[in-house]
Amino acid sequence: MSVPRRLLLVNGPNLNLLGVREPEIYGTSTLADVERITRDAASARGFDVRAVQSNHEGVLIDAIHDARLDCAGIVINPGGLTHTSVVLRDALSGVALPVAEVHISDVRTREAFRQLSYVADIAAVHVVGEGVAGYATAVTRIIDVITGLADG
Ligand code: CA2
């Protein structure tokens, strides 16, 4: 079976507030901007994007499970669930698609609790601290993994 030319973009809890609160940390771009940046980067490589953002963990898990049917990879900013959620990690490893983990801020230089990611060791691509442009980086690098141009 051929590989679908589609990515799932997942944005976790509170990322709907992008551009509305805490611009000093997360910038002024909105979630709509993030989705456009992601679609444009994917489109440049002949991929389309299904985007989901939710403040509810189960909605994210269901979207990840559904990606198994028609997506070739997942670009995810799990938000605060990065640092807490075994459930999200299990969903990602369960579908066995290549994963790119993105963080807008540089989590390596913030509070100690942000240094732990339950997703990091199952992700093929990691992008941190590039602002919302990091989503385009993540798309390019995960498509390289999907198409065999890189091994992550
Ligand atoms: O830097 C990132 O992208 C984070 O994943 C963002 C999460 C945070 O918990 C992670 O440690 C790092 C927070 C998402 C909430 O986003 C907001 C945006 C604007 C205003 C308030 C929250």
Explain this structure:
The protein has 152 residues and is an alpha/beta fold. It is globular and about 45 Å long. The protein has a single domain, classed as Rossmann fold, CATH 3.40.50. The chain has helices at 23-26, 31-43, 57-70, 86-95, 134-146, and strands spanning 6-11, 48-53, 73-77, 99-103, 125-128. A 5-stranded parallel sheet has the order 2-1-3-4-5, with helices on both faces. 38% of the residues are buried. The mean pLDDT is 96. It is built from 5 helices and 5 strands, in the order E-H-H-E-H-E-H-E-E-H. Helix content is 36%, strand content 17%. Helix 2 packs parallel to helix 5 (134-146). The structure holds ligand CA2. Ligand CA2 is lined by residues 14-15, 17-18, 21-22, 26, 77, 79-80, 82, 103-105, 107, 114.
What topology emerges from the helices and strands here?
Layout: E1 6-11, H1 23-26, H2 31-43, E2 48-53, H3 57-70, E3 73-77, H4 86-95, E4 99-103, E5 125-128, H5 134-146
Parallel strand pairs: 1-2, 1-3, 3-4, 4-5
Bound molecules: ligand CA2.
Residues 14-15, 17-18, 21-22, 26, 77, 79-80, 82, 103-105, 107, 114 line the site of ligand CA2.
- By secondary-structure content and strand pairing, the structural class works out as alpha/beta
The biggest beta sheet is recorded as: 5 strands, parallel
- Work out the number of β strands: 5
CATH topology (level 3) name = Rossmann fold
Radius of gyration, taken over Cα atoms and rounded to an integer in Å: 14 Å
Please provide a brief summary of the model.
This protein is of the alpha/beta class. Helices cover 36% and strands 17% of the residues.
